Every structure is written in structure tokens, then in C-alpha cells.
Amino acid sequence: MSSTIREADLGPSKITPLPARTAANAPAPQAHGIARNPGMKLDLGFMESMRSVNRSALERRVASLTKRRSIKADNQAAWLLRAVACMDLTTLNSNDTEERVRRLCAKAVNPFRRDIVEGLGITGEKIRPAAVCVYHPFVATAVDALRGSGIHVAAVSTAFPHGLTPLSTRLQEIEASVKDGADEIDVVIPRGLVFGAKWQELYNEIVSMRAACGEAHLKVILGTGDLATLRNVMLASMVAMMAGADFIKTSTGKESVNATLPVGLAMVRAIRAYFEETGYLIGFKPAGGISTAKASLDWLVLMKEELGRRWLEPDLFRFGASSLLTDIERQLEHHLTGHYSANHRHAMA
Amino acid sequence: MNILERYHAMDYGPAPEARNETDAWLAARDFGKALFVGGDWKAAGGGRTFDTSDPSSGKLLAKVSDAGAADIDAAVSAATKALPKWSASSGYSRAKVLYAIGRAMQRHQRLFAVLESIDNGKPIRESRDIDVPLAIRHFIHHAGWAQALDKDFPDQKGVGVVGQIIPWNFPLLMLAWKIAPALAAGCTVVLKPAEFTPLTAILFAEICERSGVPKGVVNIVQGGPQAGAAIVNHPGVQKIAFTGSSEVGKIIRKATAGSGKKLSLELGGKSAFVVFEDADLDSAVEGLVDGIWFNQGQVCCAGSRLLVQEGIADAFIAKVKTRMSRLRVGSPLDKNTDIGPLVDLTQLDRVRGLVAAGAKQGAVCWQPDVALPSSGYYHLPTLATGVSPANILAQEEVFGPVLATMTFRNTEEAIELANNTRYGLAASVWSENVNLALHVAPQLKAGVVWVNGTNMFDAACGFGGYRESGFGREGGREGMFEYLSAKLPLGPAIKPAVAAAQSIERAEGDAIDRTAKLFIGGKQVRPDGNYSIAVATAKGKLAGEVGLGSRKDIRDAVAAARACKGWPEATAYNRSQVLYYLAENLSGRADEFAARLTELTGATAKAAREEVEMSIERLFLYAGLTDKFEGRVHQPPARAVTLALHEPVGVVGIVAPDNAPLLGLISLVAPALAMGNTVVAVPSEKYPLVATDLYQIIEYSDVPTGAINIVTGRSAELAGVLAKHDDVDGLWVFADAETCDKAEADSVGNLKRVWTGNGRSLDWTSTEAAGDAFLRRAIEVKNVWVPYGD
């Protein structure tokens, strides 16, 4: 009378595994790596079947989701370490300098105070952000600073944050960042294509971006705060995945509304549908406004509940964050000492 | 496990809610003196107690006073003693008490939540985030009603001492639903919690002590079925409010028949959860989690029948199974628990038995492979597919985490399947198409319909059922009426009908002989039995003969009334014009009807003329009100609107009185028709010719076939047939006491809504004999929740 439901297991399937990418964290999540999404033709019928997104129901789901799960004590410390391992440590400011980027990279390589590493018993494990995310002019600096660490370098690209330059310019931008050594490219979509329902044009642009990326992984930022409805978020997610996105990402951090859980829920449901249809695993990156340890746990719970354990690895889940790391450090210190901590007790980036 | 291992595992682990404060409260109390009567804590007579235990472990929590009949008597006395002062106190002062209760509960919110979870087994997330906040909301909401009473309910008074019996599935919330409106209305209360879950009610009584509730206004008596029966049968109680099983509800209906006690019943359900192909399927799956896997499925309005459109059925069931495999079954005090234990071993046995029986009848029962605690009354969430409508899992209320699934082909079939049940408490409709959702919602026979949601509740929105799910509403304006009564100008007792002597001599005159038949399905038909009875004039001569209607004629009339769709589905404007037209045509023959009244009743020409004129006026009144007695739109504290729709009760049987044979009949039939009901009327037994004279008027007034049916004959006998007819939804009886009592007692077959004059006559000429009080009897309030946002 009883049977077991599989979580997303990886084989046997039609997927030919690509060579494993160097993992920032040891050990590598899957020995054989993850099959890269080749994309598919734009399937408007599939999109149509995903059109039904009921905002108030999604809001109720996330409201109860964060109340249904509670992570305490040692588990909480472990989950916060997981949040760090799934982090794209980010600086995207107009006043960034090479020195500032070098500092950020140093923090990424060595995120925790020594006593915290020892106290948590993780000395044998390199737990640190999966990538550092910067503007194009700082890619080379970051690549230098992170050489040999296994930490990826991600570049925001394609006229970030608006995406409103000629396509050729945007593609050249990707190529330049790849040339400088970025192995992850975070592109933005022109939001107007969504409002105009110009799905074929959007699809074509993302296909070209994917081609420009080459071996570098493509994260497609939807700018969900601009898209107005969860239905638009869902449809744009589907187009991005069909066009070959490795990751879909919520926000640039520059929209007036950042990553919210209802938006995240719509996007992970899109990822689930794409997986069920094609067998490919697409990553998810919420970004913007996620600055507290508590908030990071909510997102991890969302991933685990909606997609399963497999999506709690850095090859399928990333936080785009800048100040989150410090808050997590404070919580970890509190976990060890029972004392509430202060920002200045932890090295700044 | 060290942190690194946990980092790799990424499990949730236990997150226990602290219970030390609650254990301290339990340890400090003397549960042998747990009866809260007249403001004092008392032991039960003879010191009897019963056990209450923790369903997650079976361990004894407390031995609680077990009230007997004498204790109930004392509680009713205390409530009676407190009544005059409390009911006379100002709305403002009662509002202050209700507000104080709500605020005090807020200050002890977590204690209530933990205590509830320990006693009932419900997950702490639910008691903390749903039960307790909603209970508080009820008190604060009803503080407002206390103060608004004079303005919003003119001419209404609190019914008096109320007896309230509540179930174990939402112990505190059901207490709040019962006590808050009663106190707002100025009633005093004797409330009996369920034996399985007495504890939060005891804590609530402590709150009352501290919140300025006058002694005797709230009495809480712990006990079992005997205590319940003593409340139901107590002559000092003016109203019974019961939430629980349909089985016990029917016993209470029978026990209170003829007692004149006001009654509201909130009973079982087998609520449909309808998923159309254009629904947000992932959200609908979550709706099921909130629908059938909320409170272990021990919810009267649980969405226990999943109806899913064929084209998406496989995909949807796959999603449901995946979701079920992520449900966590475990300790109620673990913050990560989705499903706790059932309340008691007896309940667990019952659910297991029903699942086994369902499987035997062909259902495929699937359960996810999730961990189950080793002790405690746990039951895995269960999905039954391949369930035919005849399967026990589709028919019976399981009251456990068991979902029965069926598919449908089109909208019409979805509605038919949804309504294919004796119950009618709630329903969910999932579709992104607002046209479809709002097309289906009014057609579902259920007191609450959630569009793209489930188990949403609020104090401002009425809750209650159709059919055997009971009657009366809780919450909101309609809930307040359950604790209020308007003074009807009831007169002397009606004497039982005496059969007229059959050998009366024909009155003089040379008119052509007329045959008064029955009026069924738009036609004048002979009675099935082909007997007639004589009708006498006031002077004892033969006025004529009418058909002697029998049970078969009632059967045919009910079938005709049920088949009539043209009337309930007509627009209110259309019904209005038909009623005006009836008035117009009656007016055209006013002289003839006045003469008939004089002939039969001996009324003076003036009095007879007045009765006719008043009947015409009353038809005019209700014609005008068809499109004015409308529902409201609630705005609960959520992004949703709740449409409180006034729907017709359905087929209404009417047994009209002898006093004012025309006006009495019209005063009852017109409001029923105005609200879209179809009617089977039994006219005055003594003066039926007044009604048979109406046939022609009905025939040429554009009344749809079957909307009005008239069966002449012996009122008591025909009332009994109507009472026992399970396709009659409402029954209004103005006859002698015995007929009224029997109508109530015999209505338990389908729990039809019965309204009687308790054997007293009514002054039909009075202004109180018309208006909202009658229209309210002619409708069911259906609350349709429509969440929105894009």
C-alpha cells in the first residue's frame, strides 16, 4: 500500500554528462558533474500550460512555508554554512575599485574567523562562497585574486542592470568577460520584450548570449521586480530555460523590488516543470535584499520543500548577496559562544 | 551528528516547542475542581472525574471533573441568575468584557497554543498560527457586535440562557465561535467542551475570571454524553448550539423538537475540492495540504473529496503524491510537524477501518514512505484513487487524513459529483478563469465555497452548512441572529383539526357544480387516492368539496417543485414582476375572494375585504423585496473578498393556518417565492377553498410550472409526510402543537430547516408577520471566498 517518491535522481536518463566543473567547495557535489541544459526549441504550448499562476495562493504558500519549518541549534549552524557555500559574494557598486574587489576576494577565500572554523569543526572542509560576482572591469582582478581557490568568477553583463544596448554590444560584453576569465555570466533581459510578449525575440537573444558564453555558465536575470506579475515571471523563466539558461536569477538588486519568496516560488515551480519535461536540472539564484541569516534559511527551506535536497548544492542554487555573509558570521559566533555578536568582530570584505 | 555531517545531510532535525510553562500550569491546577459554575470552581457531584490524555504518547494529562445532571442544573441556575443583569447591561459594557477577553487571550497566546497541541495532538504551527489567533479575532470582532446590537438588530433580543456543546477538533476555536456571539447578544452560557479536549476551556475560564466577566455569565462544565444530554434537555435553556457529528446532531434535533428551543447545528461534511484543467495545479496541491492534511483531516469542512478534470488527472495526482512524500508526521510540539496524531485511539481505529473498507470496495489507497513515530495515534496521509461515488470513502465522513479522488469530464459533471452527497458544508473550486469559478460556486450546495483556496475562516464571515451538515451560521451578521430572537405576536394555542362532518347539506343556489382539485406541476390534478372531503360554510352548509391529498400527492408535488428550475434561476427582477402580477390578478377578483372568506369563515364583509386587501399588499411587499434582501460583501483580514450570497433554501413545504386562511397562506408563500424557493403548500384544512380558488390566478400570472404546488387535505397528516420527505429542504408549519412538534422530530431524515409557531397562532395582520424575519427563513447564506491579486 505504500511506495516511495523519488526526488530528482539523475540517472539513467538521456543526459550526457559534461565534464565536471571545478568545485569551489570540497567535495564536489556530484562526481560526474551536472548535465548542462542544451535548451530546446521555443515551445509556446508548454509555456501556455504554465500560464496559471495564482498570486494569492503563492503568497499563502510562502507565508506558511516559513512557519512550517524551523531549523534549530547545530542544524541551524550547518544550514547557515550551506548558505555561505551557495553564495555569490557580490559587489556591484558604481564606486567599486580593484582594491575593493581584491578585498572581497580575500574574504571569499577566507570567510570565517579561525576560532569559528575550529569551533564548528569544519577545519577539514573548505566552506566558502561559490563565486565572486563583479562588473566586467574587475573580472581580471578577481580571476587573479582567486586563482587556484576553485572559487568561480561571475560577471554581470549585457548592459546590466537594464539590458538596453544593441544586442551586438551586449554579446561583445559577454565575450570580453569570458576572455578575461569569467566562468559565469549573469545577463539581464530587456524587460520590454516580456511586456510585449515578444517571446521569440527574447528566446533568440538568450540563445545568442548562451553561444557567446561558450563554456562559461549562463545565469539569466529576469528583473522580476520590473515584471509586475508572477505570470510574467513564470513565462520569462520558461523562455530563459528553453533558450539554454544554466541558472535563472530573480533580480539585479537595482530594481525597486528585490527577490521575494513568492517570485522565488514561481521560478522554482518553473524549474520543476522544466525538469519534469526535459530531465535537465536548472539552477536558481535569488538576488537582492537577502541580507539576514534568517532570510537565507527561508530560501533554503523553499528549495528543499519545492525541489528537494539536490537543489541545495552550489551547482543548482546560489544567493546573490553582499552583506549576508557578515550576518551569518555573527549568527555562527552566537551559536558557538551564546553571546550575541557585533559586525566589527568579523573581517569586512 | 556533528555540524559537518549535518551540513551534508541538510535535514531539518527536531525543533521542539518549549512546554515548561504549560507543564507548570498543568501541575498547579486542581482538575478535580474543574467545573466553572457561577464564577466558582467546583468538583462534580460525587467527585467523579474522567481522564484526558496526550494523543502523541497516550500519557494521562489530568483527571477532570465529570459533570452530571445535578451539576448541569447548577450551571443553568447560575446562568439564569446572571441573565437579567447581563442582558440589560449596555452594549458598551458587554463590548468591554469581550475586548478584555480577547486581549487577555492574546497575552497568554502561547500557553493556549501549547496546551491545545498537548491535549488535542494538533501541530503547534496550527494551534499557534491558526486556532488561537482566530479565536482571539472572534472575541475582538464580537465586541463590536455587542455595541452595534441596538442599531443593527432593532427589535431583537438575546434568546436567554444558551447551552453549547463543542467538539474536540478545534477546542478553543469552537469555544470562541460559540461564546463570543452569545455574550455579544446578551445571552448567558453553559458550555460543555469535548471529553477528549477539556484543557483550553479551563484556561479560558481562568481568563474569564480575570477579564471582568460577571459571575454566572459564562459557565463551563466538563463532561461526557450524559452532561451533554442534560444540557439539551434542560427546560431552563432557551437555545442549543451544537458542533459535532451529524449523528448526534439528529439526536439533538429530535430531543429538542417541540421544546421551543432555538437550535443551531454545525455538523459533518464531505466537502468537494474541485480542480479544473485551467487551475494553478501546484497551488491546488498546496490547497489540498491545507484542506485535507490540516489538523490530521479532523476538520468538518475538510476537502476530503478531490474531483479533478480528466485531462489533468494523472499529472495532478503525481504532483499530489510528490507533495505528500514531503509531509512530516510527528510530535505535535515539533515546529516541523505537518501532521500530528489523531485525537484518540478510537478515532485512529475508525479511520483505519474506513480506509480498509474503502480499499475492499475497490479504492487504491496510497501512502507515502515517510517516517512515523513509534508510539501515539498517528495515521499516514492517505490518497485513495479509483473511488466510485458509491465507495464508503466517497460517502462517509472519515475525519482523518484520507483523500478520496474522482475525475470528471466537464463542468456539469463536476457540479453533479460535488453535490452528490447528503452533506453540504464547504467546497473549493480551483480555476484561473473567474467566469468558470463564479459560474460553479453558486451551483454548489455548500454553505462556504472557497475559490482558489481552502479552509479560510474569519469572524466576520458566516460559516455553516446546507443539508445534513446542519443549519444556522456562525460568525458575522448571520451568526448573531442565532443568538437573537424577535418577538412574534403569537396568540392562543391552535386546536387540533376536527374532521368536518361529511353529511352536510348543500347551500342553496343554482350555480354549476365545481370540482376543486389539487394543483401540482402547473396543472389541476385529481388526488391520487381519489377521495374528497367536504368543506363547510360558516353556517354549517356544504360549501364544496376538495381533494383529499395523500402522501403520494405530496410526493408528486415535491417532485414538481424540485424539477422547477425556471423559478430559482429566474432573475430577482423577473420574480418580482410575477409576484406583482399575482397581486394584480388577485386584486381583479378581490370581491369574489372576500365573498368566499365571508361564506367560509363568517367574517364580516369589511373584515373579509380587509384580509384580501392585506393579502394583495403583502404580495406587493414581497414583490418589491425580491431584489432588495440581498447578501453582503465582507472584507476579511486577507487579500480576499467574501461574498455572502442569499440563496433560496430550495423546496419549502408550507402548512398554512386556519386563522386568516388567505392572508396566512400568502404571508408564508410570498416570502418563500420571493427568494426563489419552490413551494408545496398545504392550505388551511378548514377553509381550503380559499386556496383552490387561487389556481386560476396562479395559472394566468406567468408563474413557472412547479413553482407553487397546493395539496389540500388533512394538515397534520400532510405535514408529517412533508417532514419525512428527504427532498424537502425547509418546512414551515403553523398548526396545532402536536403537528408542530412532530414536524420537528420527523425532520431528522435530512435535517430540513423547520420553522413552526410551536402550536400558537399568529396575528397575520400585524406588521411583525411580514418582512425580514420571514425572508431570513427563506434563504441560506452562502459565503464565497474570492482571494485576488495578480
Automatic annotation (TrEMBL), chain A:
Reaction(s) the record says it catalyses: 2-deoxy-D-ribose 5-phosphate = D-glyceraldehyde 3-phosphate + acetaldehyde
GO molecular function, one term: deoxyribose-phosphate aldolase activity
Origin: domain of life: Bacteria
This protein's UniProt keywords: Lyase, Schiff base
Bias kind Low complexity: ranges: 17-34
Pathway in which this enzyme or protein is active: Carbohydrate degradation; 2-deoxy-D-ribose 1-phosphate degradation; D-glyceraldehyde 3-phosphate and acetaldehyde from 2-deoxy-alpha-D-ribose 1-phosphate: step 2/2
Gene Ontology CC terms: cytoplasm
CDD domains found in the cross-reference section: DeoC (cd00959)
A Pfam family it matches: DeoC
Lyase among keywords: yes
UniProt record, GO biological process: carbohydrate catabolic process; deoxyribonucleotide catabolic process
Signal sequence coordinates: none
InterPro entries: Aldolase_TIM, DeoC, DeoC/FbaB/LacD_aldolase
EC category: lyase
Disordered as annotated region, ranges: 1-34
Enzyme Commission number, as recorded: 4.1.2.4
Similarity-based family: Belongs to the DeoC/FbaB aldolase family. DeoC type 2 subfamily.
Protein name stated in the entry: Deoxyribose-phosphate aldolase
Organism this protein belongs to: Mesorhizobium temperatum
Gene symbol of the encoding locus: deoC
TrEMBL record, chain B:
GO molecular function, one term: oxidoreductase activity, acting on the aldehyde or oxo group of donors, NAD or NADP as acceptor
UniProt keyword list: Oxidation, Oxidoreductase
Keyword S-adenosyl-L-methionine: no
Family listed: Belongs to the aldehyde dehydrogenase family.
InterPro entries: Ald_DH/histidinol_DH, Ald_DH_C, Ald_DH_CS_GLU, Ald_DH_N, Aldehyde_DH, Aldehyde_DH_dom
SUPFAM superfamilies reported in the protein's UniProt record: ALDH-like
Positions of the Aldehyde dehydrogenase domain: 43-487, 536-755
Coiled-coil segments on the chain, per record: none
Active-site residues, record numbering mapped to chain: E266
Protein name: Aldehyde dehydrogenase
Nucleus in keyword set: no
